[in-house]
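Researcher: Quick test of sequence recovery. Tokens follow.
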């Protein structure tokens, strides 16, 4: 966290995978298929990629041990083999965020406390009408490490909006998440969990990255739950994917 400002660094994972979804969500697109006078359905197979970076904007803001960061993550889901539907991008989610991070240098029970912070994040899919999805959140986070194991916990509060496309999104996306990772001999085992205890809904995503060449790793990913993408925030899905992940 002390490597200077205005330098691009990885934020979340950067990957490209070929996926298979067991229950594609056709429902959001039904009115548009009817207007097009067609009965084309979504393919179970698609390409998914995530691009994610962060950049420190200000180091030790206001003379305090607080760094201000900008982050950006984009997820896209491409129906590349769905030639009947002209191979559309089914969904793209855009997620800019601002973070205030305090590096920590302490231990609790043998666990290293690495950082704590606050953030604001906007997430939307850039669509209009009945396909529009978006929400804004503020969150607090804490990161810890121990012998190759790392964990980042976040709790968030959704901000109210005058024009709300998805008023029940918290029922499915919960009030926080927990990201876990374990690194050993070039392998990275990861998982992210979300759960709403009031609605009994959530999601789990698990990943395994293994060495290929240099900064390029093979990558396997599995997902089960709600909210893999914004258009599917209230739709239960299971998917598996295989591809490559970059570690830069």
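Model:
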């Amino acid at each position: 966290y002390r490597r200077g400002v205005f330098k691009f660094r990885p934020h979340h994972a950067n990957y490209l995978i070929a996926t298979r979804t067991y229950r594609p969500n056709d429902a959001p697109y039904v009115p548009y298929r009817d207007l097009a006078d067609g009965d084309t359905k979504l393919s179970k197979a698609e390409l998914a990629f995530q691009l994610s970076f962060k950049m420190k904007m200000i180091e030790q803001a206001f003379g305090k041990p607080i760094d201000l960061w900008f982050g950006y993550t984009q997820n896209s889901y491409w129906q590349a083999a769905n030639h009947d539907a002209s191979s559309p991008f089914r969904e793209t989610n855009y997620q800019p965020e601002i973070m205030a991070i305090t590096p920590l240098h302490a231990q609790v029970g043998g666990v290293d406390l690495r950082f704590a912070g606050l953030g604001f994040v906007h997430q939307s899919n850039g669509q209009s009408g009945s396909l529009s999805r978006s929400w804004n959140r503020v969150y607090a986070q804490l990161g810890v490490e121990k012998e190759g194991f790392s964990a980042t916990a976040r709790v968030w509060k959704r901000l109210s909006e005058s024009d709300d496309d998805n008023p029940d999104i918290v029922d499915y996306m919960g009030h926080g998440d927990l990201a876990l990772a374990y690194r050993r001999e070039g392998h990275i085992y990861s998982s992210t969990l979300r759960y709403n205890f009031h609605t009994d809904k959530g999601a789990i995503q698990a990943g395994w990255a293994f060495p290929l060449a240099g900064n390029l790793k093979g990558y396997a990913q599995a997902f089960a739950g709600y909210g893999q993408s914004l258009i599917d925030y209230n739709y239960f899905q299971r998917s598996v994917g295989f591809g490559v992940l970059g570690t830069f």
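The CA atoms of residues 211 and 217 lie 5 Å apart.
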